[in-house]
Design a protein that fits this description.
Low-confidence stretches of chain A: 1-13, 23-32
Structural class of chain B: alpha+beta
Oligomer: heterodimer
Number of strands of chain A: 11
Mean pLDDT of chain A: 87
Largest interface: A-B, 35 and 27 residues
Low-confidence stretches of chain B: 1-13, 16-52, 98-103
Radius of gyration of chain A: 24 Å
Order of helices and strands of chain A: HEHHHEEEEEEEEEEHHH
Shape of chain A: globular
Strand order of the largest sheet of chain B: 1-2-3
Structural class of chain A: alpha+beta
Number of helices of chain A: 7
Helix content of chain B: 25-40%
Helix content of chain A: 10-25%
Chain lengths: 297, 103
């Protein structure tokens, strides 16, 4: 808070007031001390965008439009969908860089310092795998790279105008796409939450130095729910069971290199050349269409 | 098809429509998901198809079995992917008695 100073006699005080106003404006523009938009409330996923990937799930062998490297492709080609039947994986949450793409009830609330009323953090409960995350807004640094990793990672946020920008590190290894494309624990996630009335645009920029050659950018929309979410809408009871009676304990379903029989189904079904379905940064850009030849059937 | 519990059934090879090209084992699914599961080819490939196909250490190395994890864990010169593969190979090919003593 700026204090009004007693002006020397004979001074108009105008230069001092102008300087104070400029300082105030500069501070406000550079680092807003307060939320520019209230995101609190109940939100739900809207699935008009990328619905086939987000609900039924992507085809095996569909890496089109993803900036993956050859190591990520090798990982995915060895991946067997029944990996999800392993007890250790049945209740495994999506990582924060992926979880908002799935079925979603989201409750957001802010935490304020009771003395100063400054916003210390923004919290969110996510119904998908019942995950809770905290976005620290008090300027604290990220921990050492050796600190523990979690599904939701460690997040800090700041306001850019009306957009909440969040930076998240310390995320457990998971996947970029639900067909086995890996996401490493070195991933840096930048999120942008942009509220337009009852709709929130949510943009993720994922940088993964292990498995991506360029940042992976996705957008998703959320709709505001004026009614509070019931407990049942936020709970995700999950208890792992033996799904395959004859699967030995400790077995990890997989394919050895070159033996995955399902990789070509997506290519054949949609009449796409293999060079496209195998992904890579070049498949993200419109110029890639020039490289496509007749569909390989 | 065998009912394991009200929420779980066991689909046999015949239920899946197993064929010689993609031999399948049985699979336990929720009854409501039976058709969907079959349509989406959520199958378990016969373990016979994925048994070891490599014999020697050189063959294993040539297959680069750590390739998908090399950019994450393979950058330490004191513990390279080749060293890891050799250690695993020796462990898996050691005589049972020797392996027991090693523990």
């Amino acid at each position: 808070m700026l204090r009004r100073r007693r002006q020397p006699s004979g001074s108009t005080g105008r230069p001092a007031r102008t300087a104070a106003l400029l300082v105030t404006l500069a501070l406000g523009a550079a680092s807003p001390a307060f939320a520019q938009m209230d995101l609190s409330g109940s939100w739900q996923g809207i699935f008009h965008e990328d619905q086939p990937e987000r609900i039924p799930g992507p085809w095996l062998g569909d890496y089109l439009g993803l900036p993956i490297n050859e190591h990520a492709r090798a990982f995915a080609e060895a991946w067997e969908p029944s990996r999800l039947t392993v007890p250790e994986h049945q209740c495994r949450a999506h990582s924060v860089a992926y979880i908002y793409r799935g079925p979603l009830n989201l409750r957001i609330w802010e935490e304020r310092d009771p003395i100063t009323q400054e916003i210390v953090a923004i919290h969110a409960d996510n119904s998908n795998f019942q995950q809770r995350r905290t976005i620290w807004m008090d300027g604290r640094p990220h921990p050492s790279e050796h600190a523990g990793h979690t599904w939701m990672g460690f997040s800090t946020g700041r306001w850019e105008g009306d957009t909440l920008v969040v930076r998240t590190t310390h995320i457990k290894q998971m996947w970029h796409r639900r067909n086995g494309l890996p996401q490493s624990d070195k991933t840096l996630l930048t999120e942008r939450f942009i509220r337009h009335g009852d709709v929130m645009t949510y943009i993720t920029i994922v940088e993964d130095p292990v498995y991506l050659t360029e940042p992976l950018v996705k957008s998703t929309n959320l709709g505001f729910n004026p009614r509070p979410l019931t407990p049942q809408q936020l709970l995700y009871p999950c208890q792992s069971v033996v799904e395959l009676a004859d699967q030995p304990r400790g077995a990890v379903p997989h394919y050895l290199p070159g033996q995955n029989p399902f990789l070509g189904e997506f290519r054949v079904e949609f009449g796409l050349p293999e060079v496209a379905t195998r992904g890579g940064a070049e498949t993200m850009y419109p110029e890639f269409r020039k490289r496509l030849s007749a569909p390989a059937r | 098809m065998i009912t394991i519990a009200p929420s779980l059934i066991y689909l046999s090879r015949a239920d899946w429509g197993a064929d010689p090209a993609h031999p399948r084992l049985g699979y336990a699914v929720a009854p409501a998901a039976r058709t969907e599961a079959i349509v989406h080819h959520t199958v378990i490939v016969d373990s016979d198809a994925t048994k070891n196909v490599w014999e020697t250490l050189d063959e294993v190395k040539a297959a680069r079995p750590t390739f998908d994890f090399d950019p994450r864990y393979g950058t330490d010169d004191s513990w390279t992917p080749a060293m890891f593969v050799e250690a695993v190979y020796r462990n898996l090919t050691a005589a049972p008695a020797a392996a027991g003593r090693a523990r």
